[in-house]
Write a structure and sequence with these properties.
Layout (H helix, E strand, L loop, with lengths): L2 E3 L6 E3 L1 E4 L15 H13 L4 E3 L8 H13 L6 E6 L14 H15 L4 E6 L8 H14 L2 E7 L3 H14 L4 E7 L11 H8 L2 E5 L14 H5 L1 H7 L2 H17 L3 H10 L6 E4 L4 H11 L6 H8 L30
Parallel strand pairs: 3-4, 3-10, 4-5, 5-6, 6-7, 7-8, 8-9, 9-10
Antiparallel strand pairs: 1-2
Length: 339
């Protein structure tokens, strides 16, 4: 395993972070693993050197934190694991049960700590940007969590670059703790964050962690998998023909190297100059091995990178503000050796 500092913080994290959206309760989604099934994956990842795990109160409406908290207590000391969890989406009733108001943030953090049976979380992350709550209100509240000892570091996920910049400079202006991590979606099939967000984070010294390196599974080229056929968001985000063409290009590069397509897709993310950490959501230990192999893989060649990239053209950002928006895209011709 390889490790890195998260941004300009002193926090050491593994370059592979275990994503756990697939862990919790099958009542939430049919492809979710229960506690017994999840423990096999968590234990294997930590045996391979992972010390970083990503949760959310929204996943399985709280069961994700309960399940993973139980597993972590059985298998590791608290100070040997970096636990991140996210807040924002509602998991219950009531008009204030959601968003980033002071009321919801305080209730949500206390709920997460109770489900996790922990005194603190290492990283507390906004799941998105709440446009209905003043940034001063929600970030002052986030800052208070660090000062209280319930949270060690702050982070954000899935928002526009200007929104993240607003958070960052509001924190700087008021002497509040700044975010140390931006968790964003990046894959060969989704590269919009390369335009502004990643360069901003590099300039500001914010660590970048990338989720969905397989574009919710399509870059594994297993188009008939349980998740790819039952997850609505996979079809919504990557159901277009261009995404499939990109997947086929990844498959061609994989065949040339004699490795699975997923390994190529993951290597593309890990070798990206703007990425510090890649999230891995695995259903099997073999899938986690793919990420480990990608971490140690030689650099992809210019020919490989062209083949993977040649069909990519600008597209809509994937966030809460433009669901179901699609921009028509055209493919580019292949070059040797992929003609």
């Amino acid at each position: 395993m390889k490790y890195t500092k998260l941004g300009r913080s002193g926090l050491n994290v593994s370059r592979l972070c275990l994503g756990t959206m697939n862990m919790g309760s099958k009542q939430w989604k049919p492809w979710i693993y229960d506690e017994k099934e999840s423990e096999l994956i968590v234990r294997y990842a930590f045996e391979k050197g992972v010390n970083f795990i990503d949760l959310a109160d929204f996943y399985s409406t709280g069961a994700n934190e309960e399940v993973c908290g139980n597993i972590l207590r059985r298998m590791t000391a608290r100070d040997e694991v970096v636990v991140a969890t996210k807040v924002g989406y509602p998991i219950g009733g009531g008009v204030n049960n959601g968003g980033h108001s002071r009321v919801h943030l305080e209730n949500a953090l206390n709920g997460s700590l109770k489900r996790l049976k922990m005194d603190y979380v290492d990283i507390y992350m906004l799941h998105y940007y709440d446009t209905s709550t003043p940034v001063e209100e929600f970030w002052e509240t986030m800052d208070s969590f660090v000062r209280s000892g319930k949270v060690r570091y702050l982070a954000c996920s899935t928002m526009m670059s200007w929104q993240f910049a607003k958070i960052y400079y509001t924190a700087e202006k008021n002497g509040w703790h700044k975010p140390v991590n931006m968790q964003l979606q990046l894959s060969a099939a989704y590269r919009e964050e390369e335009r502004e967000m990643i360069p901003f984070c590099q300039d500001a010294g914010v660590g970048v962690s990338a989720f969905s390196p397989l574009a919710r599974g399509i870059l594994s080229c297993d188009f008939s998998s349980n998740r790819n056929t039952t997850d609505f968001f996979t079809h919504e985000m990557f159901g277009d023909g261009i995404s499939k063409e990109i997947a086929l290009s990844v498959n061609r590069v994989a065949k040339r190297h004699g490795v699975p397509p997923a390994q190529i897709a993951q290597a593309w993310v890990l070798q990206h100059s703007g990425i510090d950490v890649m999230l891995v959501g695995a259903d099997k230990t073999e899938q986690f091995d793919s990420a480990l192999n990608a971490l140690d893989m030689p650099l992809l060649s210019d020919e490989d990178l062209y083949e993977i990239s040649r069909n990519y053209t600008p597209r809509d950002h994937i966030n809460d503000y433009n669901a179901e928006c699609r921009i028509p895209r055209e493919v580019r011709p292949a070059k040797t050796p992929y003609v």
